[in-house]
Fold:
Amino acid sequence: MQRHPQRDGRNITVALIPFGVIGLFITSLLQAPAESEPFPLVSAHEIVADLPALPEIPVVESAQPPESEAEPELLPSLRQSTDWQFVEVSYGDTLSELFVELELDPADLARLLRSGEDAKTLNAMKEGYKLGFRLGDSGDLDEFRLIRSPLQELAFKRDGQEFGIESIRHTPRIETEIKGGTVYSSLLAAAERERVPPTQSMRMVDIFGGKIDFMLDTQPGDQFTIFYEQQFLEDEYVGEGDMLVARFVNRGKEHLAVRYETADGLTGYYSPDGNSMRTGMMRNPLDVFRISSHFNPKRLHPILNKVRPHEGTDYAAPTGTPVRATSDGNITRASRYGSYGNIVIVAHAGGFETRYAHLSRYADGMKPGVRVRQGDVIGYVGSTGSATGPHLHYEVLKDGVPRNPARANELLPSAPGIAAGEMDRFRSHTENLLAQFDTLNRELVRRSAGVSAD
Structure:
């Protein structure tokens, strides 16, 4: 756990974007050679040729995270106080241990836990949460904050011998940003060069992951442009918002996706003509990885030294890397299972089943009967069971028969697009957004060409 002594607002550095595993990947797995001066981007396809021209919209310069190690995110209002102590929760921490370490009255912990229904969160704190303690003149706890994110917190205030609880949600100010670049070695290296936030890089991979294998299909000269939201509180950047429009040109073919919420309240990404960007099954269950062993019915087992069919694909990745469900389905197992170690098994429509083995741990709430959607995090890479090192063993089965995961996305139909009866609503919600993107992208291309010309 990380400890942060009392301080005022002048000497606190705020962690804007937690790089976590993504940062490790960028620095260790995807080190790119020094690259030459970028060449100009190619203009976007004329997707809104029939729309009226819009005035030029200035590009918002985004706030960027500091280069040095940062302190945890704190609400701007709290950072102005000098009588708060803050702690960042590490994996395995409990509130009772923190009370002992900070020499606080355990009776106050009991009072916090019985202060209301929302107080149950205190028994299931997550790594990365921030806790705030404000002590009175007597040294007793007067106020306690559980900060789940810069936008969500629980405030516990002493009222006599008990504590009152208030759930607080902050509404951020939304600004938009556009960024683009050219791939020379890998997408993530290009995104890092253009200072694209890692969360948005991963969203781009999620959006186009069913159409493009970003580990195998990308090549030098591929281009990307993304248009996304940023969140601010009290004029301070606090995080990323939604991806609004994303464009990727792969081997000369343009892929364009726009965010849309259907009349039923389901959010997804669609092409301008209403086709869903989702395939029946994602190509890979990890965002960044190295394939260490392919599907092979005649593989020599690395531990048993015998010919044993390898009925899945092994993805080497650091322990703790998030593992995603590759298709919608229901969890049928989330427990230890022999040589598989910790495994999650998901049943899908059409007699399909996927298995995710050797996990270090499960994502919160994963148990039999839980419904998951494509892209949901269901667990984390590990080396439990019969494993020579941290990796994910991933299997796809059809009616109980193992299939090659590399071709599994060809077996399931793509997700349905916009229904004919909703196309007018879809166009009315997305045409202006696409027009704005096109205007901003033209400006981005112009500025890039100007830089290259220099």
